[in-house]
Amino acid sequence: TMHYLPRDRAPIMDFGFWDETPAVWQQQGLPEGVHTDDFFGMDPQWIDLPLNLGLSPHFGERVLEDRGETEIVMNCDGVTVERGKFMGSIPKHLDHALKGRETWERDFKWRLDGRNRFSDLQSRPGMADVLAKHADPNRDYPLGIPAGSLYGWLRLWMGVENISLLVHDDPALFEEMVETVANCIIDGLTPALESGLTFDYALMWEDMAYRCGPLLSPRMFKQYLVPRYRRITELLLKHGVDFVLVDCDGDISLLAPLWLEAGVNTMFPMEVGVWGADPVAYRRKYGKDMRIVGGIGKVLLATTRDAIRKEVERLTPLVEEGGFIPTPDHRVPPDVPFDNYLYYLECARELWGHNLPNLRPMQMHSKPPA
């Protein structure tokens, strides 16, 4: 699909679900105890080498306070959050261990030595069998490799407000942080790429945009991030990894051309949002150089069958062209009715899957409209 080659059908994939969604759906007909990917008959997806390129060792996660419906937790990234025990989508950040030069030197910089990451992975119990399976030239699934994060991790460790001030107050420290993370990623990736394993794609995570655009100006993005992205993507391409995905929510319209310039060629999950991102418009603007995963508005799935059907039909020509794998544009929330999701999959299997039969017809049969 991503090479624009002939294929029997499009992949049928999802992004995942809020933890609460299956619990809510069980009240609407989803059988208890089933794995959602198996139940819905999704194609294999996101099989990545479990290579840690970030903080090592992590901070130990611990619960600091129980507040009944919420709890205060210091997580493995050194971030203190208040998170809900149920229906808690995004936790509220309360404090961050990374505050400036002193905490960077004392608590973070030394955790970003990437030189032994692949050997550490190889030494894990049971990993030899996993790596042997991945090395099989006849494997029937795409294998990915993580490619880290140049801004998203720093934003997570430091907080949006603090890092937004840092790029103005101490740009030298910001650049040092970005360079250190980039070196860690490259040092961690290189032995894995040289190990004989072949990878079909690499996945980066940034989450550096919101409904009004990027959290870092395009000028600073081009100055500080693009050169480091290039180092990473050139290393990947040298070893045959020609698809580099970036996972970034929000309005990425100002960043997308810069990612392309830096060799990051696949936008994921192409969140539609209130800003109205449209995979068709992105293809019209950037051509086949940009690949896309996502682009199905999760909010749309909570509306009507007619709206769902029309969107699946509208996107079908782009699906047929290739370079586009449609999925919900983020994890499906519990306000999407179970029957709506079944109907969406029926339409996808018919039009994108070329009348792909349902794996479990009785389970996949949706109720008639009221």
Could you walk me through the main structural features you see in this protein, from its secondary elements to its overall organization?
The protein contains 14 helices and 13 strands. The chain has 370 residues and is α/β, with parallel strands linked by helices. The strands form three sheets. Strands 1-6-7-10-11-12-13 form a seven-stranded parallel beta sheet. It has a four-stranded antiparallel beta sheet with strand order 2-3-4-5, with helices on one face. Helix 10 links the parallel strand 10 (244-247) and strand 11 (266-268).
In round numbers, the mean pLDDT is 93
Structural class: alpha/beta
Number of helices: 14
Largest sheet, in brief, is: 7 strands, parallel
Assembly category: single chain
- Which geometry do the CA atoms define? globular
Which runs of at least 5 residues are low in confidence (pLDDT < 50)?
361-370
Distance between the termini: 37 Å
- Could you tell me the strand content as a percent range? 5-15%
SSE order:
HHEEEEEHHHEHHHEEEHEHEHEHEHH
Radius of gyration: 21 Å
The helical percent reads 25-40%
For the biggest β-sheet, the strand order reads: 1-6-7-10-11-12-13
What is the strand tally?
13
Quick structural overview:
With 370 residues, the protein is an alpha/beta fold. Helix content is 39%, strand content 15%.
